[in-house]
């Protein structure tokens, strides 16, 4: 339920629960059950293997996701990059977060 009201989804390194929440948010946006918002993965070294698998296996080999689906996800290393992505997203749509 918390994803429904989110204005950005910042995901830190974690385990299965973190992956569950990440993929749930992506799925809800992809299927248009909720409005689009930035999904930001923090820690490029941590997320590198998963992102490679998503690109190489899901997108390229089996084509179970669209290349556009990767536009939903940003991978960064600093809090400044997180803030920049959120700011750019809301400026692009002439909106602003409510915080």
Please outline what is shown here:
The protein is mostly helical.
Structural overview:
This protein has a domain of 56 residues. Helix content is 47%, strand content 11%. It has 3 helices and 3 strands. Helix 1 links the parallel strand 1 and strand 2.
Give the CA-CA distance, first to last residue. 19 Å
Radius of gyration: 14 Å
Average pLDDT figure: 92
Query: What fraction of residues sit in β-strands?
Result: 5-15%
Give, in spatial order, the strands making up the sheet with the most strands: 1-2-3
Reading the helices and strands in chain order gives EHEHEH
Tally of contiguous helical segments: 3
- Let me know the number of strands: 3
List the helices and strands and how they pair.
Blueprint: E1 9-11, H1 16-30, E2 39-42, H2 44-61, E3 73-76, H3 79-92
């Amino acid at each position: 339920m918390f994803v429904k009201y989110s204005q950005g989804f910042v995901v830190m390194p974690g385990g299965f629960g973190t992956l569950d929440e990440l993929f749930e948010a992506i799925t809800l946006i992809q299927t248009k059950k909720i409005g689009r918002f930035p999904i930001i993965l923090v820690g490029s070294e941590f997320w590198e293997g998963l992102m490679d698998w998503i690109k190489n296996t899901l997108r390229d080999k089996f084509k179970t996701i669209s290349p556009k689906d990767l536009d939903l996800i940003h991978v960064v290393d600093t809090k400044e990059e997180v803030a920049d992505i959120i700011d750019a997203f809301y400026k692009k749509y002439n909106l602003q977060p409510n915080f």
